[in-house]
Amino acid sequence: MTNPIVTAFFDEPTNTISYVVADPETKACAVVDSLLDYDAASGRTSTVSADRLIAFVKAQGLTVEWIIDTHVHADHLTAAPYVREKLGGKTAIGEHVATVQRVFGEIFNEGQSFHTDGSQFDHLFKDGEAYTVGRLEARAIHTPGHTPACMSHLIGDALFVGDTIFMPDYGTARCDFPGGDAGTLYDSIQTLFALPDETRMFLCHDYKAPGRDTYEWETTVGAEKRANIHVKTGISRDEFIAMRTARDKTLAMPHLILPSVQVNMRAGEMPPAEDNGVRYMKVPINAL
């Protein structure tokens, strides 16, 4: 079986890793968890990170088939529509994005003009859906818990897990966002742990665990089962729920959660301009 060539692009300000996942035979590729640079102090966006990824795709002679977001990110803005404009391909996310849209649509008081059916995306993946990247066989796996819409993607032997799990020495994702649930996350991780131990696993974030000097974002299913400090084999569901719930109570909201969610639930488009032609991000007070 042919396996993908995976190239990572790390953004240190947000600790985010974006990926180009390429079929070496056909030169088709998928872009996973792209990033639009955003300065919160000024409200300005830039495409420096996305342009670096785009330049790589062009230099390698790749054809983009998919532009996938693993979930509605709360820590960075997706560059999906910009990547599509420059390279083609279909934007895609899990079908349960509609749940996230309904919840945050109410929080941001978006009104009836904001559609909560996922129609902003070109494609909505269903759990277990098979698809291809070139000749590479791929499968979408619903892995909720961090958010209701989280979807992991197995492309060849490479598994892209979004925020579901981190490096073994750092643990797992938080579950205290609206719609999150620690027990559900535990169950989702067990679904991933049922994959072959040698399956390569690629993470959306790394924060350098205490004592580690370098950023890391590739591991394996087997390594996570053996050593993940939160959810390795032998840790029960109840133990995980107790740990995750207590830990989440100590965490501050991500720095970019308010702009990120408003943009990402729109498939990367900015909120509509007001009558002065300017687009605005809302800041709900005491709502999160």
Describe the structure.
Helix content is 24%, strand content 22%. With 288 residues, the protein is of the alpha/beta class. It has one domain: Ribonuclease Z/Hydroxyacylglutathione hydrolase-like (Metallo-beta-lactamase, Chain A, 4-Layer Sandwich). It has a six-stranded mixed β-sheet, with helices on one face. Strands 9-10-11-12-13-14 form a six-stranded mixed β-sheet. It has a two-stranded antiparallel sheet with strand order 4-5. β9 and β10 form a beta hairpin. α1 (48-59) packs parallel to α2 (80-87) and α4 packs across α6 (237-248). The protein is globular and about 55 Å long.
The low-pLDDT segments are none
The CATH architecture would be 4-Layer Sandwich
How does the major sheet shape up? 6 strands, mixed
Q: Total domains, how many? A: 1
The amount of helix comes to: 10-25%
**Proportion in β-strands:** 15-25%
Task: Report how far the terminal alpha carbons are from each other.
Answer: 46 Å
User: How do the helices and strands follow one another from N- to C-terminus?
Assistant: EEEEEHEHEHEEEEEHEEHHH
Overall strand count: 14
Mean pLDDT: 97
CATH class: Alpha Beta
Structural class: alpha/beta
Lateral arrangement of strands in the main beta sheet: 1-2-3-6-7-8
Number of helices: 7
Q: Name the CATH superfamily classification.
A: Ribonuclease Z/Hydroxyacylglutathione hydrolase-like
